[in-house]
Design goal:
By secondary structure, this protein is mainly alpha-helical. The chain is about 65% helix and about 0% strand. The protein folds into two domains: about 80 residues, Orthogonal Bundle (Endonuclease Iii, domain 2), CATH 1.10.1670; about 100 residues, Endonuclease III, domain 1 (Orthogonal Bundle), CATH 1.10.340.30.
């Protein structure tokens, strides 16, 4: 796989997204909301994350109120989210930290926050306009199908994609692949991927 072919495939995938404005879990007006919702989104569908995040921010409309919230009340609101007890603890702790120190501007700083791994940190940075690749299940699955990476470890996939794609495309990779993955069934996805591979091979 070479860089120009991968870029062409990425652009073709974007064309196959019926709704370019499909809402993603990390799309919020306030940076702290972006971060908290991205923590909540791990192992949870975007539709559910958005729904529960709306309830959470209606009840706690500021990071200060979330930081001071009763843990049991947070748990009750986010209960439909996977691993809700762990995530409730993480988002309350993270809210306390960013209330005092602000949100870190680097991945290294973000990784020190409770509940923030590489995927969460990179997705947050990409939303903030930084060059970063958030590798979630959609990105990992499609990267392997398209031959962009043979790895299963998200960190290794991230590094493969960084080598394959020019930096200007990094922050759009997660947006495109997640929207594409959410817009198609697995069968449709496989058919589109196969056509893409055939087209790029000159078939």
């Amino acid at each position: 796989m070479n860089s120009s072919r991968a870029v062409k495939q990425l652009k073709e995938l974007e064309k196959k997204i019926p709704d370019k404005n499909l809402r993603l879990a990390a799309e919020w007006d306030e940076p702290w909301m972006i971060l908290i919702s991205t923590i909540l989104s791990a192992q949870t569908k975007d539709e559910m994350t958005i729904k529960i995040s709306n309830l959470l921010y209606h009840r706690f409309p500021s990071v200060k109120k979330l930081a001071k919230a009763d843990l049991k009340e947070i748990e009750k609101i986010i209960k439909p989210i996977n691993y809700y007890k762990t995530k409730a603890r993480h988002i309350k702790q993270t809210a306390k930290i960013i209330l005092q120190k602000g949100i870190p501007k680097t991945l290294e700083g973000l990784l020190e926050l409770p509940g923030v791994g590489r995927k969460v940190g990179n997705v947050y940075l990409a939303v903030q306009g930084q060059d970063a690749i958030g590798v979630d299940t959609h990105v990992a699955r499609l990267s392997r199908k398209l031959g962009w990476s043979k790895e299963k470890n998200p960190h290794k996939i991230e590094k493969d994609l960084e080598k394959l794609f020019p930096k200007k495309y990094w922050r759009s990779i997660n947006y495109i692949l997640v929207r594409f993955g959410r817009s198609h069934t697995r069968k449709e996805e496989d058919e589109i991927v196969e056509r893409l591979k055939e087209m790029q091979n000159g078939a």
